[in-house]
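Batch manifest, entry 17 of 40.
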Amino acid sequence: MLIVGLMSGTSADGVDAALVELGGAPPALRWKLIQHVHQHYPDELHEEILACAQEDSSSSARLCRLNFTLGEVFANAALEVIAASGHSIGEVELIGSHGQTVWHQPLGEHPSTLQIGEAAVIAERTGITTIHNFRPRDMAAGGQGAPLTGYIDSLLFTHLTRTRTCQNIGGIANVSFLPSADLQPHLQPFAFDTGPGNMLMDAAVRKITRGEQSYDRDGRLAARGKIDQPLLASWLQNEPFFHQTPPKTTGREQFGEQTLVKFSQQAQEHQLNDSDYLATLSALTTHSIAAAYRDFLPIFPEEVIVSGGGSHNPVLMNSLKTLLAPARVLASDDLGLPTQAKEAVAFAVLAYETYHNRPGNLPAATGASHRVILGSITPGGSFRGLDHGRSPD
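Output type: C-alpha cells
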C-alpha cells in the first residue's frame, strides 16, 4: 500500500509529509520511504498556532477557524508529496494525519488531548481516506496518548543483538527503549517523554532576535556561550517532570511560555548574556535526556538513533555523544530514514495498522490498560468499507 503520513510537532514550525510504501505485518513489516516534503508554516500561521495553544487564550471561534485552516495546509502537503513522488493520487490508498496538538493534558482530574487539522477537509481535497485523531483512544483506555512512536520504533529499528534507543528531539524530546531481539521477552520495548527538546530554545531565540530568527541554526548562538552549571542543576532538580516515573508525557503545557518566562528571569538573576542563556537551555535538553537514561532505562543502550530537528544541531549532538558514551550516537539518516521524515513515516504506519484492524499503541509506553486500535476514519474515494482490513489476529 502507498500511504501518506502527515505530522506537525509541538514546535509548530510546519508540516512534514511522507509517502511510504508498506507491506506485510508485524513483526515482519516491510517499509520504504518514497518521498518526503516539509511545508514551513508562514509566520502568521505559526504565531496563531502558538496563541491557540495557550491555556484560556483561545475562543471557540478562533480555534474552529484554525482547525479548518490547518486542514487545508495538511491537504496541500499531502498533494505536494504525492506530486513530488511521481505517483498519482489514485495510487495512494490512505492518509495518516497526526494533526497539530494545541492542548495535551494527560494527567489530573480531566485528562484530555486535542489535535486539530480538519480531516474532512483533507479527505475532500485529496479524495483519499484519512485516518486521524490517534491519541484519544489510547487515553480512553487509561493511557497518556503519547508517545505513540514507541510501537513504530520497535517495528522499524529493533536489532537482533544490539540494544538501541530511538531519541527524538522535536519540540519535546522522547525516547523509545528497544532491547535487542535476543533479550526479548525478558525485556520489553517502552517509551516516554524525557522533557524539552527544541521548544524552549526556539522560543528563547525568537525573543532574543525579536522574531528575526525562529531557531538557533546549527547551534551557533549557543556555541558562543558558557553553560551556567548551578542554574542548570537547579532546573534539573526543581522541575518535577524530570523525576516522574514513566509512563509520562509532556508538552507546551509544562515547558511552554510560563516556563520560559521563569527560566528567563532566573537567567537574568544569574547575569547571563544571551549566548550563555541559550547554552544553558541547550544543556537542559541533553542533560535531561542523559538523566532519563540513567534513571529509567533497565540497561544502557549500545546505540542511540537520533531524529527530529535537534539531530541537525551540532551542539546538541556533540553533547549527547559525550553524555551518553560509550553508546554510539547516530542519526536515523544513517539507517535510511531521514530525521525530519521519521514521525511522518510513523503516522503512515499507524494508519496502515488501523486499516488492518490491528492495535497501534504500546501500553508500556503510554500507560494504557490494554492495546487498542487507534484513530478515526474519514472516508475518501478510496474507502472500501469497514470489512476491508479484517485480520485474523
